[in-house]
Amino acid sequence: MNRQHTYGMGRIYKRGRIWWVRYYRNGQEFNESSRSEKEAEAKRLLKKRQGEITLGRFTSPKADKVLFSELIEDFLTDYRIRGRKSLNKIGFKVKPLLDTFGHDRVKSITTDRIKRYIAERQGVGAAAATINRELSVLKRAFNLALQAEKITTKPYIPMLPEQNVRTGFFEYGEFTQLRDALPEFLQPIITFGYYTGWRITEILNLQWRQVDLDAAEVRLDPGSTKSGEGRVIYLDGELLDTMREQRAWAADLQRDWGEIVPWVFVNPETGEQVRDIRSRWNKACQHVGLTGRLFHDLRRTAVRNMVRVGVPEVVAMQISGHKTRSVFDRYNIVSEGDLRAAAQRISTLPTKDQDKTGTISPIPTNATGTKKR
Questions:
Q1: pLDDT tens for residues 32-49?
Q2: Tally of CB atoms within 10 A around 342
Q3: Half-sphere exposure of residue 194: CA atoms within 13 angstroms, side-chain side
Q4: Which of the residues 3, 4, 42, 159 could staple to 13 if both were Cys, CB 3.0 to 4.6 A apart?
Q5: HSE (CB half, 13 Å, CA atoms) of 314?
Q6: DSSP H helical segments within 11-81, as ranges?
Q7: Which H/E stretch holds residue 96?
Q8: Are the C-beta atoms of residues 195 and 238 closer than 8 Å to each other?
Q9: 254 exposure class (CB count in 10 Å sphere: 0-12, 13-18, 19+)
């Protein structure tokens, strides 16, 4: 007959010659081998586990066996469930983690090991921003495992400082110079980006059903943007003229091809949607001496230009599709009007020759009215 003894909410018992312990956490039963034939060892193990549960330091025996690869599988499942648009890119962030920790038990991934991982990634030339994106995956994977109670603790994961101030803006002359160097059918795309700050994919995926030239407005459908939110912009000036010309050109193109073309920006050689402009963009940049410029620079430029002419930040964000105000910090954008106003306020500060009321103090004189020496 198996012997067993009860100790509070736990007990010890024998299976064959080995003593086991049984205890409970949040109503869940745990059975764990003491790996000993001595009853005293089982008592010590039970007391230890009960103490860990009381102090909130308990780690399930199953948690000791969880592999890091399981955490990554759960992370990717969560990514798919939430419908993240960058699912096709996440593999680049996951691969270095799996290469390093993939066959390890989670309990072995300590802060020291993570710091060594960071050093190894730096050693092969990975940028701080790249490493931080990988560490963000690591954090999310651990947090999901905690939520699922697969683990009960996680290591501290340090992040690297990033030089996150973005550079690269187009002055109007540079913008027109680059635009004129591009094929004619790509020029409206550049104009649209310069004035709206939209992402290249948002522009290239635009369809005529989303454009109302009579109302001079363009709408993005919910779910078609990075944030998942729809938005509307109103057309005016050069951008409105460009879109009207584009509509007339599209009508001619449809007559030539004999079918309706839903896309706003189309390659006239194929009658299909423009999907990528990088090669022609890079060639045009090199031709006009702007090598290294990115289409994303138009996004920064649009936001800066809006702020320059006094468009409120919240409105600029709504037009360009930025979800948080941090863009103004990352793009290092400051209104010139704000700088001028600051200079004017500074100039009104009292000097050593002014009294506390802001008026100029008279030059001290003696009783005869002559200046003191």
A1: 888 899 989 989 988 888
A2: 11
A3: 21
A4: 4
A5: 0
A6: 39-55, 68-81
A7: helix 87-101
A8: yes
A9: middle
Residue 240 CB partners (closer than 8 Å, separation 6+): 213, 216
Q: Please tell me the predicted confidence (pLDDT) of residue 81.
A: 85
| Ramachandran quadrant class, 332 (left: phi over 0; alpha: psi -120 to 50; beta: rest) | left
The SS3 assignment for 344 reads: helix
Query: Using alpha carbons only, what angle is made at residue 233 by residues 230 and 235, rounded to the nearest 5 degrees?
Result: 155
pLDDT of residue 166: 56
Helical pair 296-308 and 313-320, crossing angle rounded to 10 deg: 150
Token code pair at residue 51 = 């103490």
Helix (H) or strand (E) holding 115: helix 111-123
Per the CB < 8 A criterion, the answer to whether 236 and 217 are in contact is no
* pTM, entire model: 0.57
Total number of residues shown for the chain: 373
Amino acid at 271: G
Q: Is the pLDDT of residue 153 over 90?
A: no
Confidence of residue 280 (pLDDT cuts 50, 70, 90): very high
Q: Which DSSP category does 20 fall into? A: E
Residue 225's φ and ψ, nearest 5 degrees, are -110, 170
Q: Which CATH number fits domain 172-330: 1.10.443.10, 3.10.20.590, 1.10.3720.10, 3.40.50.880?
A: 1.10.443.10
Residue 140 has pLDDT above 90, yes or no: yes
Strand 211-212 to strand 231-234: parallel, antiparallel, or no bridges (unpaired)? unpaired
* Domain limits, the chain: 4-58, 68-147, 172-330
Provide φ and ψ at 183, rounded to 5°: -55, 150
299-322 average pLDDT score: 84
The CB-side HSE value for 331 (13 A sphere, CA atoms) comes to 25
Question: Closest Cα to residue 31, out of 52, 47, 46?
Answer: 46
Q: What are phi and psi of 184, to 5 degrees?
A: -60, -35
Residue type for position 162:
E
pLDDT of residue 368: 42
